Structure to design on (565 residues):
């Protein structure tokens, strides 16, 4: 999910561009240096979460232990982004087996809610608010799946920091405070929202100390009773009773039957670097499709700030997103031609559709043969060489507005991502996983870890994945520079929720591109706009095998921190 403020067409002089302060080295847009350390590294979107991860690593915990600790604390300190009411995806490099593992910990729709019932209610899309978009929260089960396979410390130790800060309180950071007041204004009439997030009627502001004792108690139950207490115990029964009171469909049965899925990651090679993503129901393979198309152009001869790079990237995105809208869905319910979609041969055919001199107004999905938000991202590496790439989200802002009695967290609204058009891959069905935007990424080179990274921000995420890797491979940037570099986005493509691209959409550029470039893009037919808050956030860990040093980066667009020891 992302919160977007779009401000008209971009007619700004170069003098208005915000630049990073002068530095002795590096790109002019770099905001800080890469953080380097050998024994452990954690990069998250909140300093307290980064510190919690490092504490676990120093105590002998694995990278997975530290990632769970950071994620649990993120749900406390950044409830506008994530929490135990949401879903989780992860990629884990295990040094012992020299293998990359993938976990899909996303939940499914309620058994008792049917497409016929949604149609009877006259809906053309699932709403963002209320009980209807609530699907099973998969985060907690994801923690325990990861911990059982890769954990070293007991789970109560792993969750200790999250429990402490939920009970003792923490000062609310800038970004959280910005969105907090808007959430309470939008959801304040729903049960338990005010008492949980604005106790005493006071919405926390920047620097205010906020406590969530109900969430502390819930996390303590999980630490003591494991995943069963959440999906089959007291917490599950509380959620069931609350949803019934609200006229919802998520039930005890849905929670009790939930399972995560270990999946094989898929990859493509981009100029010698293998980018790994998780297969659908997420959108990770869109990044692979993008890079396959763009590999056909020699970006060593195309300036970073030039209109040609932005034009080619945007036109490739339009093609990929038509496939994304048509094919990406829960593979248990649809045939998805993944191998063909991410093949070089298919990319070559799609590349022929790009006009280098004109922005496309309308494109169609390909015909491959069948062979087969808001969000937080964090990455952690330990002294043994294990690395975790983890992403977790409630989807739109705090979530659905549904806060079960006494539990201290909001349930996700990920069900909003289904299509209600009959006969599509992503059409709603009971006990089906929705299309997902959140995707972790991992890069290997010659079969060894090169970089773990992710970019938050709804549909922007595969675009961000591709831009980051291109910044490093094609333009020689380090991980921090690659994240700080001005980004590009395109809106208006067809979507898995049923919308169809009706015109060329619009291109948005972050501050930092020259007006000469913007003017040329307009000549090519692009509708160019300026947007605030559209481009997500980013964390990364790169590994230098010669020096045996981790290089950590954290996005200046967020309140996060990269730190190591």
């Amino acid at each position: 999910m992302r919160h977007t403020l779009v401000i008209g067409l971009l007619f700004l002089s170069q003098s208005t561009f915000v630049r990073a302060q002068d530095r002795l080295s590096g790109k002019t847009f770099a905001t800080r240096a890469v953080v380097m350390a050998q024994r452990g590294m954690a990069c998250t979107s909140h300093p307290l979460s980064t510190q919690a991860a490092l504490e676990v690593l120093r105590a002998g915990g694995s990278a997975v232990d530290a990632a769970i600790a950071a994620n649990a604390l993120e749900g406390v300190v950044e409830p506008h982004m994530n929490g135990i009411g949401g879903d989780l995806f992860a990629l884990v490099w295990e040094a012992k087996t020299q293998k990359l593992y993938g976990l899909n910990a996303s939940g499914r729709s309620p058994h008792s809610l049917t497409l016929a019932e949604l149609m009877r209610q006259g809906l053309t899309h699932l709403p963002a608010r209320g009980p209807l978009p609530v699907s099973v929260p998969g985060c907690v089960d994801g923690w325990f799946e990861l911990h059982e396979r890769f954990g070293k410390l007991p789970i109560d130790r792993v969750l200790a920091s999250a429990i402490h800060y939920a009970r003792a309180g923490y000062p609310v950071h800038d970004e959280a405070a910005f969105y907090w007041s808007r959430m309470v204004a939008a959801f304040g009439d729903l049960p338990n929202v005010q008492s949980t997030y604005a106790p005493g009627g006071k919405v926390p502001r920047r620097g205010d100390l906020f406590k969530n004792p109900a969430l502390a108690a819930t996390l303590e139950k999980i630490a003591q009773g494991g995943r069963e207490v959440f999906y089959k115990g007291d917490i599950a029964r509380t959620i069931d009773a609350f949803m019934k009171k609200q006229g919802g469909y998520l039930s005890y049965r849905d929670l009790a039957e939930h399972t995560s899925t270990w999946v094989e990651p898929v990859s493509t090679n981009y100029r010698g670097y293998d980018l790994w993503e998780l297969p659908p129901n997420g959108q990770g393979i869109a990044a692979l499709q993008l890079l396959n198309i763009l590999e056909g152009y020699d970006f060593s001869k195309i300036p970073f700030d030039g209109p040609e790079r932005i034009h080619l990237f945007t036109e490739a995105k339009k093609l990929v997103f038509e496939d994304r809208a048509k094919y990406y869905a829960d593979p248990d319910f649809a045939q998805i031609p993944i191998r063909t979609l991410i093949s070089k041969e298919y990319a070559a055919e799609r590349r022929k559709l790009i006009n280098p001199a004109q922005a496309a107004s309308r494109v169609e999905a390909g015909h491959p043969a069948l062979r087969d938000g808001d969000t937080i991202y964090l990455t952690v590496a330990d002294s043994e060489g294990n690395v975790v790439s983890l992403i977790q989200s409630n989807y739109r802002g705090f979530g659905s507005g549904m806060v079960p009695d006494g539990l201290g967290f909001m349930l996700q609204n990920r069900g909003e991502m289904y299509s209600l058009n009959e006969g599509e891959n992503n059409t709603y069905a009971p006990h089906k996983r929705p299309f997902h935007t959140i995707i972790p990424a991992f890069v290997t080179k010659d079969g060894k870890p090169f970089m773990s990274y992710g970019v938050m921000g709804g549909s922007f995420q595969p675009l961000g994945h591709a831009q980051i890797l291109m910044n490093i491979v094609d333009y020689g940037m380090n991980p921090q520079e690659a994240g700080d570099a001005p980004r590009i986005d395109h809106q208006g493509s067809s979507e898995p929720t049923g919308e169809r691209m009706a015109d060329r959409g619009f291109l948005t550029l972050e501050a930092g591109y020259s007006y000469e470039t913007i003017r040329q893009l307009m000549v090519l037919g692009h509708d160019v706009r300026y947007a605030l808050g559209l481009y997500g956030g980013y964390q990364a860990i790169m590994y230098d095998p010669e020096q045996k040093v981790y290089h950590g980066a954290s996005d200046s667009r967020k309140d996060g921190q990269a730190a190591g020891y």
